[in-house]
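thread: overnight batch results

M.L. [08:02]
morning all. the overnight job finished for the chain we discussed friday. pasting input first so we're all looking at the same thing
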Amino acid sequence: SFLVAMPDPENVVVRVVNLPLVSSTYDMIFSVYTNTKENHPYLRSVCEVAEKGVKTITATAFTNAILVIQKMESHIVFANNYASIVLDKVEEKLPILRQPSDKVVTDAKELVMDAKETVAHTIFG
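M.L. [08:03]
and the structure it wrote out:
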């Protein structure tokens, strides 16, 4: 699972990543990606090249970001606190965020089936 250790419980990015809908969707996508990479040799080499590129870009961006983060720490703390308040409200209004993606998909399928049955019953009696 893609759960991140929570060094700061108020870190809004960590909170979003750890939402069940977000983490389970990531796990599902990662599983499909891994399966595709393992079962399709032609795509494997393309994926590996792309992964190396992403790692290089990420390392460079991280190194440069540290300097910016240090200079803007007070602004980041303010933005994080504000975003945390907004996330609290979003989580309250959208409880779906606390559900794993497979449950969301199952519930959506059931809703569609119920709607089809209702329409069919209304039209055909």
